[in-house]
Request: fold
Amino acid sequence: MNYAAETSGGSSALPLLVVVAFAAFVYFLMIRPQQKRRREVQDMQSTMGIGDEVVTVGGLYGIVTEVDNDTVMLEIAPGVTAKYARQAIGKVNRKAATEEEPAADEETAPTPDAD
Reply:
């Protein structure tokens, strides 16, 4: 009878190990990547500036004309602006060209010789 008592106690660690392994699996494959994506979106929303071309989470394209703490004004058509929550911006398609980075459209064309 002593033998049965000794062998039944050793198998209780296996279910605990399976639960811990499953929790680690869920954390590394589901929770951690979602936290990383959320941080990237927050960084993108906090660094967008005037002149950036953005897409809202609803799929509306626009150009940022004004940025406030919680809101963003977008020009959605020439002369038409709309106010959106900063969290409604889903993606920055194109950053505005800064003075250090000349736009590709501003290349100088060779001038023809006048005769």
Q: What stands out?
A: The two ends are 116 Å apart (CA to CA). Residues 18 and 24 are 10 Å apart (CA to CA). The longest strand covers residues 61-67. The chain has a mean pLDDT of 81.
